[in-house]
Amino acid sequence: MKIRMQITKDADIRFVSHLDYLRAIERSIRRAELPVEYSSGFNPHLKFSLASALGVGIVSSAEFVEMEMAKDIEVNIAMECLQKALPNGIRIIDADVVASNEPPLMAKAGFSKYKVHLCGDGDKFSAAVNNFNNSTKVIYRKQVPKHKEKFKEVNIKDFVNEVKCEIRKGEIVLDFEIQIFQDGSLKPRDVLNSLGIDYTDADIERVAMYRVGHLPMLNSKK
């Protein structure tokens, strides 16, 4: 059996790297003494994974961790034990059981939904968003990972169909979904860059994640 949990990355750990976030979860699984399966070989490791990496500085209420269990355990007991072992800033929201032969969690993720809070000229933001939504192509030069001097052109509209903009008493709130493909996706900051938005002081949150077809990540949410 596998146990899949929806967890958070709260504001007080927003600047923790993805690798350190993974390590915190791994240490917590060990402290909780959950019966998670180990890989075989000379360097065995716990068989768990996250659905999608989250950028530094971004908070989330929609991270998903999947653990392959060595033996059956009640979901509620696993949630209780792990929550006691997790550090501040990581909370368990929900969990369910999936079959051992289910595809890996990363292969399931289809969309990430983000909400961005920032300040600035509301008319300028609205014009940028309207221009984005009315365009069939929005070409953005994206840096190639691990190659600072290499860039590739991507069409943002292949990943983001629409950006919603709401102005609330001087605060601008943007909502958008980014599609996740097997060969990669975009960062929310790529979307903001394509809009010509300075995201230095922006509060970015991942608020939801869906499987392909906009199905919930947890079977219990169907």
Helix/strand class: alpha+beta
| Major β-sheet profile | 9 strands, mixed
* Mean pLDDT across all amino acids: 92
- Number of helical segments? 5
Query: How many extended strands?
Result: 11
Q: What is the overall silhouette? A: elongated
Going by CATH, the architecture of the largest domain would be 2-Layer Sandwich
The amount of beta strand, in percent, is 35-45%
- CATH class division of the largest domain: Alpha Beta
What layout of secondary structure does this protein have?
Elements: E1 2-9, H1 18-32, E2 48-50, E3 59-68, H2 75-85, E4 92-98, H3 105-108, E5 109-119, H4 122-133, E6 139-144, E7 147-155, E8 163-168, E9 171-179, H5 188-194, E10 203-211, E11 215-216
Parallel strand pairs: 3-10
Antiparallel strand pairs: 1-3, 1-4, 2-3, 5-9, 5-10, 6-7, 8-9, 10-11
Helix pairs in contact: 1-2
